[in-house]
Structure formats: C-alpha cells, structure tokens
Design a protein that fits this description.
Strand content of chain B: 15-25%
Structural class of chain B: alpha+beta
Distance between the termini of chain A: 31 Å
Oligomer: heterodimer
Radius of gyration of chain A: 15 Å
Helix content of chain B: 10-25%
Order of helices and strands of chain B: HHEEHEEEEE
Structural class of chain A: mainly beta
Order of helices and strands of chain A: EEEEEE
Number of helices of chain B: 3
Strand content of chain A: 25-35%
Number of domains of chain B: 2
Shape of chain B: elongated
Largest interface: A-B, 51 and 49 residues
Chain lengths: 80, 147
C-alpha cells in the first residue's frame, strides 16, 4: 500500500541534533531569486532559491515556512 | 581688508595662494576636458588617456556580458525568476526551530518494528492532524489508535 500525504511532520524536539533541521524532499519547488557570478565572487553555492508556502506545490510538497537557501547547480533542476 | 588675502598660505588662514589657485584651476580644467588622443594629467590623479578610459569602460561591459552562466543537469540555464525543484536530499538548518522536521513522503510501505504486537503506534494505522492516513503497519484495516 502506497500512501503519499507529503505533509510536513515536525521533528521531535527531544531528538538528536542531526534531526533538528528541515529536511528538503526531492521535488520541493521554489523560485530562483539570484544567481551569483562564480568567477567574480566564487561562491560555493551560487544559486539562491526562495521557498514560499502555498505556491509551486505541483508535486505536493508545501514548504511550512518562507525561507531562502543557497544551492549548487547539481542540487536543482529548472522546471519548464 | 577683504575677507580673504590670497597672498597668505593655507597654513595661515585657510585661504589659497595665487599659485596654488592657478594650479588648482588648471588641474580641474584638464581633469574635466578630455580631448581624444590627448594625454590627461589631472592635479591629483594618475596619468590617464582617453584611450585607457575607453578601454576601462569596454572591459567592464565585456565582463558583464561574458559572466559565466549556470546550467542544470538538463542544460537549462538558471535565471532569476525561474521555478526550480530540489533533486538532492538536503537539510536546511537556517530555519526557525519550530520548522524543524521532514515531509511525510510515504512512498513505500513502512514495516513495523515489532510486527504482531498490537501496541500503540506500531501495529495500526496512523493519521495526521487533517485525518489523512499516514501509514499502517498491521494487516487489519481499522482505526485502532491515534497518531
């Protein structure tokens, strides 16, 4: 039986330190807000993505909060 | 006497001498007058020519236009405003602690650890706050325990 609720499940506050984070699932969608020049600035993660609740939830994953995160190129793919 | 005696030096009363005033004006004129091909030597600047100024401008434009572009694994360019999806399992540590957690993907059946023991959270269905079924670990389809 396969169930895909894709709901956000809060972490156990008494859990281990490695669990105290927001685990990003494969398929979570966001919008690119900035692409840094890798030669001029040399950033390790040059792509800045903004995740906003309620938008771009095509794959069922809804970010629980508004946040931005820096990514490498192999960690993202452009959606048509 | 006038308010400013130009024979006095700067050290005495803050006014400029005639010679200093002359060089100041000449430097200002030469600094803001650019004749093509003529060497410009401002009063407080390095030796610049109009050719080098044009070269500086051109090199800046060139750097802007030739900035390296970033592409994904499908050779699609990352541009601002584009919608992207995460393709690698990652963890975000910069969010508020109340958003620590994960998404219930539930794409595979989760075998209970203690199969056969009818205990809470082990051999039963689980529901989330919206009354959606999260997973079950038993062989009987009935709602027997809370999440």
């Amino acid at each position: 039986m396969v169930i895909e609720s894709k709901e956000f499940v809060p972490a156990d506050p008494d859990g281990e330190r490695r669990t105290k984070c927001l685990v990003l699932p494969i398929g979570l969608r966001g919008v690119v807000t900035r692409v840094y020049d890798i030669e001029d600035l040399g950033p390790q993660h040059p792509i800045v993505v903004r995740f906003k609740p309620g938008v771009h939830t095509d794959e069922g994953f809804n970010p629980p909060t508004l946040f931005i995160m820096h990514f490498e190129t192999y960690e993202l793919e452009v959606v048509d | 006497m006038r308010s400013c005696n130009i024979r006095n030096t700067v050290k005495r009363d803050g006014c400029l001498s005639r010679i200093a005033l002359f060089y100041l004006l000449m430097g200002a004129v030469s600094a803001f007058t650019i004749i093509p091909g003529r060497e410009v030597s401002g009063f407080a600047s390095n030796r610049l020519t109009t050719k080098s100024i044009i070269g500086l401008t051109a090199s800046t434009e060139e750097e802007t236009t030739t900035a390296p572009k970033l592409f994904d694994t499908n050779d699609k360019q990352f541009v601002e405003g584009a919608v992207v999806r995460v393709i690698a399992p990652l963890r975000a540590f910069q969010v508020n602690k109340k958003w620590y957690g994960s998404f219930d993907e539930g794409k595979s059946f989760q075998q209970p650890k203690h199969f056969g023991i009818r205990a809470y959270g082990v051999n039963c269905f689980k529901f989330d706050n919206n009354d959606n079924l999260i997973f079950y670990g038993g062989d009987r389809v009935e709602r027997v325990c809370a999440s």
